[in-house]
From TrEMBL:
Protein's name in the database: Rho-GAP domain-containing protein
Protein's UniProt keywords contain rRNA processing: no
Superkingdom of source: Eukaryota
Sequence ranges of Acidic residues compositional bias: 312-321
Entry-linked SMART domains: RhoGAP
Cross-referenced PANTHER family: SLIT-ROBO RHO GTPASE ACTIVATING PROTEIN
Alphabetized UniProt keyword annotations: Coiled coil
Sequence ranges of Basic and acidic residues compositional bias: 322-334
Alphabetized InterPro entries for the sequence: Rho_GTPase_activation_prot (IPR008936), RhoGAP_dom (IPR000198), SLIT-ROBO_RhoGAP (IPR051627)
Source species: Rotaria socialis
Record-level GO BP terms: signal transduction
Region of interest (Disordered), ranges: 312-334
């Protein structure tokens, strides 16, 4: 209280280091500094040796192999304790454990584990649009409700089909979740390492026929599962473009909406220039899908014409009992 009540009190004596002499010569102070520097050096210089001893003790406690004998082996083991472990590069394809991710995963891995030639999310969305969305104006261009898209995503990730009882009002959300799936694939539908090969089919080509011919040669290099998925999806897009008078989505409009998703441009490329090439490439494939992806009798194919299903209480039925006014249904639903 005396110090508080006194103005300009000198309290420097309270902050003096009592362990050191107050009045020391310059040489003595230099000696003290050298002492602490040497102490710090001795504590840090044997860090590798102390880590090695700790490593040997842990190995012995865990029943692991005896410590390395050679000097080089010891150095490698010591530096491995100091450096952050680096994941080794994987050579070849390792076996996949468990169900792979649908969104954000690899299409090839998912097909390999689930044995679905066409993943459920693709076949279900295509089937729903085939039944109810061919006439939907702006399909794939008009965004859907984000809440519905998230719900569809969660259900598909669990292996469920949320589009069984879908209505025509939700077609934009169905197209939205399908675009989201392709956009989040770890490896795009058009693989990055084949980007230049596909672009070369469209650049400096004298005719569209020559472009289709080049595409047929490049498509033969695709993995078989990717070929089947592409054949299925582009046949559907071609069918959808046939209703462009009503849905306003011809092959060019569909290509403009889907090219950045199906075939993203590498970062080291000119984005503006190559965007035009990718759109033209996707448009060409949609228009000439039968030539680019010929049917060979193996794997599922998209059924262009829907099956009609009788409505209860309908009159004017034909000889087979099918009403002229009927619901559209894709064969994949059977």
């Amino acid at each position: 209280m005396e110090f508080i009540n006194t103005k300009n009190s000198d309290v420097s004596d309270l902050f003096k280091d009592l362990n050191l002499p107050q009045n020391v010569s310059k040489d003595k102070r230099k000696e003290i500094e050298d002492y602490y520097k040497f102490k710090q050096y001795t504590l840090s210089s044997n860090l590798i040796s102390r880590l090695q001893a700790r490593h040997d003790i842990m190995q012995k406690a865990l029943g692991a192999a005896p410590p390395a004998n050679s000097v080089e082996d010891k150095k490698i083991m010591c530096y491995s304790l100091l450096r952050r472990p680096v994941k080794p590069k994987q050579i070849g394809r390792a076996p996949i454990l468990g169900r792979p991710r649908l969104f954000g995963g690899k299409l090839l891995d998912y097909i390999q584990v689930t044995q679905q030639h066409v993943p459920l999310i693709i076949s279900s969305c295509v089937s729903a649009i085939n039944r109810l969305g061919l006439h939907n104006q702006g399909i794939f261009r008009v965004p859907g409700a984000q809440v519905d898209i998230n719900q569809f995503k969660e259900a598909f990730e669990k292996g469920e089909d949320p589009l069984v009882n879908i209505t025509g009002r939700d077609m934009n959300s169905v197209a939205g979740v399908l675009k989201l799936y392709f956009r989040e694939l770890k490896e795009p539908l058009f693989a990055r390492d084949m980007f230049d090969s596909f672009i070369s089919c469209i650049v400096d080509v004298e005719s569209e026929e020559k472009c289709v011919e080049n595409l047929c040669q490049v498509v033969k290099l695709l993995p078989r599962p990717i070929f089947i998925v592409m054949r299925y999806f582009f046949a559907f897009l071609n069918h959808l473009a046939e209703y462009s008078d009503e849905n306003m989505m011809d092959a060019s409009n569909l290509a403009s909406c889907l090219a950045p998703t199906l075939m993203p441009i590498p970062e080291d490329k000119d984005q503006v220039q190559y965007l035009t090439h990718t759109i033209e490439l996707i448009r060409t494939i949609i228009t000439h899908h039968e030539e680019v992806f010929p049917s060979d009798g193996h794997g599922p194919v998209y059924e262009k014409f829907a099956i009609t299903v009788t409505i209860d209480g309908e009159e004017d039925e034909d000889d087979e009992g099918i009403s002229e006014r009927s619901l559209r249904r894709s064969p994949s639903d059977d």
